[in-house]
Every structure is written in C-alpha cells, then in structure tokens.
C-alpha cells in the first residue's frame, strides 16, 4: 500500500431509461492539457481563473445551487461501460427527472438511519461551480500536499467526463447554513485522470482542485488537511462525509456514513466499493476515511449509488492512476 505520511466521501441513480447523477450539465470549453507524471501515467490538467468567483458565490447562490442529474449519466452513456444487469430500479424508467420529482418518493422510502448528522469539520466542505450557465454543488476535502492547497472531490464534480471543465469553482470549508467561516477558496487548476476526462470511466471518478491563497494564506495552514492512502487492501471499514442536497436533505449541514466496504455486484468492471449510505446529490466528492473518524487517511470519495432511494454509496478504488493525479496536483 502507498500512504502520504500525514494524518489530519451524489448518488448516481440508475434505471433502464434514466441515470441520475450527483452533479452535472453540458457545455464546451478548451480541451484540457495532458501531463505525464514521473511514473508515465497521463493526467488531465485544466488551468482555472477565479474571475471574481468568491464574490459570485453569495449565501443566496450557495443555497440555491443544484445537485444536478446529467453529467455522470452522460459520461456513462458515452463510455458504454455501464451494465444495468440486475441493478435495482427504484422507480419506473425515467420517472425521476428533477429534485422536485424525487421529493415524494424519497421522503416516503429513504431510511434515514444510514446517515448521521455531524458538526462541521474544518477541512471538509462544499464545492460550488458553474457548468452550462447553471450553478451546482458537490463536496470536497483538504488533503495533505506540498503546496498546502489541494482539495479532493469526485471527477464528475470538475469535468463532464469527457467534456468541459467546471468554471467559477470555489471550495468552502466547514460550510454550515450558508456560512463560510474559513472563506471561499477559488480554484487555479483542476486535475483528473485522463481515463475520466477523456472517457468518463467511473473507475477513475476522482479529481483534485488546487486553490489560490486567501488573504495571503494557504488552505492547509488555515483548516488543516487529511493524509491520503493509495493501493490499500479492499474491504476496509470507512467513514464517509458529505453535504447531500437532493431530497430529503437540503445540503446545509454535514452528514456521514459508516460501514465495511464491499464490491459493486452490478458493475464489477468499475472496481468500486460500497458502504451503507443514503446520502443524495450534493454529497459527491465527499471523503472516505479509513476507520471511524475524519482524522484517518482518506482513501476514496463519494461517487454513485443505484436508485434515488439507494442505501449504498460506492466510491472508486484509489490505485496508482488516481495516485498519479494526486501527485501532479499536490506538487503544482
């Protein structure tokens, strides 16, 4: 296994005719640059501009940002990697088309016991961004890095997979009810595995944002950071965190899930693992920590689940490819 020696997780809803993702929309922008790290692995890099992003994200815009339902579904459809097989279908095909459409079924059927409410954690926060003229929200975490300015999240929170990169992206650590107690940290560069940015391969649904300094300080110096681990054993126990915004949640406070990871039985080609969890859209990109607290090593992110009433959250296995993406971002 590989570790960084410092300690400090949107459900994807699948049905035969509709695949609902944690975030997403469609747009177009310049093709991302492709770097190659010291191990020869390709990494997609996109240079971002804050362009007044911090001022753009008022409390009102943060509260109204949507957990979208397009990006990851389109990526899966384009990639041709999805196998519906015997995956559970929570509703009739195509029945859930909006957050409003999910409300009644979600309120009726979701077992709220598979998540816990949490007080804010300094290094965990919300990620806000714009795609196709609409505002969206994910979750993220400050991770240890030489630049002390690196945030982990899901790949589909920064890139359509394949397609446009997000703009107007900010990280708001310890968000609570519209407040930004440690400020809004604007992105200056976005990194994802080329397997995600070029093919939308769910196996690699992880990305890292490098943020600008704020008031002359670096992110980790203000909120701390989590150690990261790669190529770990499978089947470990995890605690994941996120800000679910789709019904029946409102995205205004931090939630967590805990459990032992098991392989995805419906799409084993993704090599993902799942833990008991019903967090919905907006929790995408929230960190998975090995163990039972937010002080462990981060080892995955919230990626997807089956059905809007899913009780399992799946996250990508952090192997050498995702490690290469992290290494490129952390050293920038």
Structure description:
The protein has about 325 residues and is of the alpha+beta class. The protein has one domain: Beta Barrel (Thrombin, subunit H), CATH 2.40.10. The chain is built from seven helices and 20 strands. It has helices at about 55, 60-65, 70-80, 100-110, 195, 220-225, 320-330; strands spanning about 1-5, 15, 20, 35, 40-45, 115, 125-130, 135-145, 150-155, 165-175, 185-195, 205-210, 230, 235-240, 255-260, 260-265, 275, 285-290, 300, 310-315. A six-stranded antiparallel beta barrel has the order 7-8-9-12-11-10. Strands 6-15-14-18-19 form a five-stranded antiparallel β-sheet, with no helix packed on it. A three-stranded antiparallel β-sheet has the order 16-17-20, with no helix packed on it. The two termini are about 25 Å apart. Residues about 5-40 and about 90-110 have low confidence and may be disordered.
Gyration radius (Cα, Å) is 17 Å
Query: Please, what is the oligomeric state?
Result: single chain
Count of DSSP strands: 20
Major β-sheet strand ordering: 7-8-9-12-11-10
Keywords: Signal
Signal peptide: 1-30
Organism: Paenarthrobacter ureafaciens
Protein name: V8-like Glu-specific endopeptidase
